[in-house]
Design brief:
- The strands form 2 sheets. The chain has a 9-stranded mixed beta sheet with strand order 2-1-3-4-12-11-10-7-8.
- The protein is an alpha/beta fold.
- The protein has 5 helices and 12 strands.
Length: about 200
C-alpha cells in the first residue's frame, strides 16, 4: 500500500495505540496537527478519547475544523474512532454549548441513568453490521465483538447512515457509513485481531 495515512493529533485521544496498530500492519501514521499536514495524505483517521467540548476546542484552536469538513465533503477516506465519531455530529449532551463538526445531523446523548446499566459502557460488546456485505466488515468474525469505553453515543437523524447496531440496555448506532466515510463508537486499536481487520479493510 502506498497511501499516506494521516492521524489527527489534537493533544488527546488514543493516539499512540492507533499508531502502534498501524505499524503492526505495516503502515505508518503521519500526525495531522495543522491544516497543511492534510495536503499530502490520502486517508484520514480521527482517534478520540476525552470530552466532546475539549476536543472541539482544540480542533478549532489548531484551525482544523474547516480542513476536516472539506475532507469529509469531498468524500475522501475517513475513519473516526469513539470521540472521533461523536464530533461528526451537531452537538452533544456532554458539552451542550459546543458546536460539533455537524457533518451528520443528529445529537450525541448519554446512556440513561437509573436503568441499572453501568456507565460508562466499558468492555467487549457485539457489533451487528446493518449490511454485512459492506467492505469494511470483510473477513471480520461473526459474531463480531469489539471493545467500547464511552458514556455517550450519537443518534443520527438519518437512520440510513447506520452501519452497525450494538445493544447496551437498548440498541444504539455503533457505527455509521457514507461513501468513503466510516466512523464507530468502538476502539479497533483495542479490539485485537477483529479491530486490526477493520483497519486493514479501511486501508484497502
Amino acid at each position: 500500500m502506498s497511501d499516506r495515512i494521516g492521524v489527527i493529533d489534537y493533544g488527546g485521544g488514543n493516539l499512540q495505540n492507533v499508531l502502534n496498530t498501524l505499524k503492526y500492519i505495516g503502515e505508518e501514521g503521519h500526525l495531522v496537527t495543522q491544516p497543511s499536514d492534510m495536503d499530502s495524505i490520502d486517508r484520514l483517521i480521527f482517534p478520540g478519547v476525552g470530552a466532546f467540548g475539549d476536543c472541539i476546542a482544540q480542533i478549532d484552536q489548531q484551525k482544523l475544523r474547516e480542513p476536516i469538513l472539506e475532507w469529509l465533503q469531498a468524500d475522501h477516506p475517513f475513519f473516526g474512532i469513539c470521540l472521533g465519531y461523536q464530533v461528526l455530529f451537531e452537538s452533544s449532551e456532554e458539552s451542550p454549548e459546543t458546536k460539533g463538526l455537524g457533518f451528520f445531523k443528529g445529537n450525541v446523548v448519554r446512556f440513561p441513568s437509573g436503568t441499572g446499566l453501568k456507565v460508562p459502557h466499558m468492555g467487549w460488546n457485539e457489533v451487528k453490521p446493518v449490511n454485512p456485505g459492506d467492505s469494511i466488515w470483510k473477513d471480520t468474525p461473526n459474531p463480531l465483538y469489539l471493545y467500547f469505553v464511552h458514556s455517550f453515543y450519537p443518534c443520527p437523524e438519518d437512520e440510513s447512515i447506520a452501519n452497525s447496531l450494538t445493544n447496551y440496555g437498548h440498541d444504539f448506532t455503533s457505527s455509521v457509513a457514507s461513501g468513503n466515510i466510516f466512523a464507530g463508537q468502538f476502539h479497533p486499536e483495542r479490539s485485537q485481531e477483529a479491530g486490526i481487520q477493520l483497519l486493514r479493510n479501511f486501508l484497502t
